[in-house]
Specification:
Largest sheet: 7 strands, mixed
CATH superfamily: PurM-like, N-terminal domain
CATH architecture: 2-Layer Sandwich
Structural class: alpha+beta
Strand content: 15-25%
CATH topology: 60s Ribosomal Protein L30, Chain: A
Helix content: 25-40%
Order of helices and strands: HHEEHHEHEEEHHEEHHEEHHEHEEE
Distance between the termini: 24 Å
Radius of gyration: 20 Å
CATH class: Alpha Beta
Strand order of the largest sheet: 9-11-6-12-10-13-14
Shape: globular
Amino acid sequence: MSDSLKYDERGVSASKSEVHSAIKGLDKGLFPNAFCKILPDLVAHNKDYCNIMHADTAGTKTSLAYLYWKETGDLSVWKGVVQDSIVMNLDDMACVGCIDDIIISSTVGRNKKQITGEVVKEVIQGTGAFLAQLEEHGVKVTLAGGETADVGDIVRTIDIGFTAFGRMKKEDVVDINIQEGDVIVGFASYGQSIYENDYNGGMGSNGLTSARHDVFTKKYMTKYPESFDPNVPSELIFCGSKSVDDIIHLEEYGDITAGKLVLSPTRTYLPLLKRILNDHRKELNGIIHCTGGAQTKVEKFVKNKKIIKDNLFSLPPLFQMIEAESKTSRKEMYQVFNMGHRLEIYTDASTATKLISISESFNIPAQIIGRVEANEGVEIEITDDKGVYQYLS
């Protein structure tokens, strides 16, 4: 079965083509090419300010967290999933320059038959703990409250989402205006930054439906039928070889379970981006959060450009494992998984050197991973040790 058919049969889409088709023609806000929709200042009606509101969830990562918790009794994974959902909002907003004084609200829907009160407690307390951690690094995010609903008729385990609101000066907005001659700085999604307590595999919150079914073993299909969509063909359910408690050895970081590796909380780049934006905001031609669409995400924000990525990070252990277990083509992997960097900045070569230095001070590897050329139409070309992959739009 082809990779694209496999994803379709599992009910997921890397490109979200149906969503983008549905929203085509809607108002795109004050900065139509910005990474997030930016609205006029509807709070104070100040023409010099603008508002950003963003909503996102941890996606199907909660299904794997549920399975891992049931297998191991480890409640700490729920704090990681809370972080996933918050970061998927905040880091998108950071791509337009909104990096502080943000208000968030949670929306949690659970199946009470499967998700206990102690899990709900872990989710709520995990929210406060993560926001406190951000504040330690100079990023102020305030929890306004939220809604926790028992919706077992429509949710099989739990869905964890957040909505975020920010207000900022228009002059501080980072619009996307990627230029011929720009270089691309990639910032690693894996490793252990100075503000993380453990090794991060780099998963993020994209590609989890594929990752968990391709990596983990069929025994979970009968053991936890509530952890997947029963409409998906059985041959696509948990068809890997790993158990969640299998040990993966990492040369520099020691041992980690396969479950924890895939469940690594989505790294926030906010502390790093706050430093970068404070010092170099005006030199940035675009910040891309490589979420849906992964390494092809940038195609939605350029015209008549060729994006060349030919100096990527070595493939981290997490993605090596997913590739080996799934037998997914490398070309498709780049469209589904971030493959080692989930943030990229487009700028000039001189500024790039400074950004790399700042990133390394946070113990986040960074490097120039490519460049931009003029082109007829939009093309992304990725080159690695296994080949050259072209994506046209």
